[in-house]
Amino acid sequence: DVCKDYTPPASFGAQNPQVTFAKDVMPIFAQSCAFTSCHGSSAGSANGVFLGGTDPARVHQAIVDVRSSKLPTMSFVKPGDPRESFLLRKMDGSHCLLDAQCTDNDCGQSMPRNDETLSVETRDIIRRWIAQGAKND
Q1: CA-to-CA separations, 89 to 36, 43, 105, 122, in angstroms, rounded
Q2: What is the pLDDT of residue 84?
């Protein structure tokens, strides 16, 4: 695999449509990330970040303005800045460009692990949510 950067096309509208955390983002996490073997374990490390359960407030608190242990200089989600959000970099597959800054010079695998990258449309929902301020609604 070749490490490539991802930049949304010029036609990408970050502000429209409006995205909500509970109705739009949480279902993506539930379908793609919140398994007990990935980021859904409430009784273990959840592989660095908890994205599971049915409590949006708990998940929001775990990712927004919370530094990644893999890349301590970057938060999982930086409100208003998708490009500086480690979670989205992992989902886009462009985290590998940051390997030199990550612990052990390795930012790990893209997410979802051992699976196809989520569709651009799905990732753009999360990108919009972050661009719109990563609010917990």
Answers
A1: 22, 26, 16, 14
A2: 96
3-14 exposure pattern, b = at least 16 Cβ within 10 A, e = fewer: eeebebeeeeee
Contact between 64 and 77 (Cβ < 8 Å): yes
Predicted TM-score (pTM) of this structure: 0.88
For residue 6, what pLDDT band results from cuts at 50, 70 and 90? very high
- Cα distance between residue 129 and residue 71, in whole Å: 22
| Integer Cα distance of 109 and 33 in angstroms | 13
CB 27 within 8 Å of CB 132 = no
3-class SS of residue 53: coil
Residue 130: phi and psi, rounded to 5, are -65, -45
Task: Show the tokens assigned to 3.
Answer: 């490490």
Alpha carbons 85 and 8: distance in angstroms, whole number: 14
Please indicate whether residue 48 or residue 47 has the higher confidence score (pLDDT): 48
